[in-house]
Amino acid sequence: MARYMEALKSSLAVMGKQGLQSLEIRNDDTVIGEKLMDLLCYSPCLRKLVIDGGCISRLSKQMALLVNLRHLYIGVSNIKQDDLCVLGSIPTLLFVRLFVENGPDERLAIISHQFRCLKQFIFISLGGGLDMLFMQEAMPELRWLCLKFRAHESDCKMGFEFSFKHLASLEHLKVTIDCGDATRSRVEAAEASVRNAASAHPGCPRIEINRYLEDTEGYRLS
Predict the structure, then answer these.
(1) Under DSSP, is residue 185 helix (H, G, I), strand (E, B) or coil?
(2) What is the pTM of this model?
(3) Which of 16, 119, 155, 201 could bond to 42 as cystine, CB 3.0-4.6 Å?
(4) Which of 3-6's residues contact partners 24+ apart within 8 Å by CB, and which partners?
(5) Residue 103 — very low, low, confident or very high, per pLDDT cuts 50/70/90?
(6) How many whole angstroms separate alpha carbon 76 and alpha carbon 168?
(7) How far apart are CA 38 and CA 194, in angstroms?
(8) Of 62, 37, 32, which Cα lies nearest the Cα of 49?
(9) Which residues form the Disease resistance R13L4/SHOC-2-like LRR domain (predicted)?
(10) Which backbone phi and psi does 103 adopt, to 5 degrees?
């Protein structure tokens, strides 16, 4: 492992000096993925980063050094507010797909002047419940927002709270609610929360809400 990581570090350093702009890696090893994130500072010209096939446990603060990054596709085991702030500080991001294995256990807020150039944001959470607020002047260029989350009640007791009204450029909102292992009342509460938040948006974006696994035995009796 040590020899492999040293070779990877050396390769990234060489390619970084040569202006590496696109990096796509299929990662099935969490340890390698985390070490890779810490090595990304060697590639300041990177514009596209795709890490597929597995989740890393955390987002490295080193990502803030990727000041030219435009396209990000990544999975993490857990997400915190500070992690979103690190991503939001990257000034050039246009596309982000963020997959969260365990789901957040706290309210997430996209704060003012974060993700200034972002056009598309895809957030997928396997945890139960989701509280996500988009504050005033956050994601001012966002056109397309896609959220997918599970409705079942998890140990952290997360509910459903959303705010989209400050997304000034939003044109299309797509939300998928995973009904697996959820009560019907939880699913209905999730959808109602999304619809209420979307209806408050002054720009009347296109709204698409889907229920995943609704037609299977995913529901628990309520």
Answers:
(1) helix
(2) 0.90
(3) 16
(4) 4/32, 5/32, 5/35
(5) confident
(6) 28
(7) 36
(8) 37
(9) 3-207
(10) 80, 155
Per-residue pLDDT for 6 more than 50? yes
Instruction: Please report, as a single letter, which amino acid is at residue 77.
Output: S
Q: Residue 162 forms beta bridges with which residues?
A: 132
- How high is the pLDDT of residue 135? 97
Q: In whole angstroms, how large is the CA radius of gyration of the chain?
A: 18
Question: Could you report the per-residue pLDDT of 185-204, keeping only the tens digit for each?
Answer: 999 999 999 999 999 999 99
Apex 154 CA angle, 151 and 156, nearest 5: 125
Q: Provide the 8-state DSSP code for 220.
A: B
Q: Count of CB atoms within 10 A of residue 118's CB?
A: 27
Q: Among the residues of 41-90, which ranges form H helices?
A: 81-88
Percent of the chain with pLDDT over 70: 88
One-letter identity of residue 12: L
Which domains are present in the chain? 2-212 (3.80.10)
**Amino acid at site 183:** T
| pLDDT tens-place string over residues 25-83 | 876 665 566 677 777 767 889 999 998 877 888 888 888 989 999 999 999 988 999 99
Q: Which residues pair with 146 in a beta bridge?
A: 122, 174
Q: Are 221 and 207 in contact (CB under 8 A)?
A: no
222: CB partners within 8 A, 6+ apart:
183, 184, 185, 186
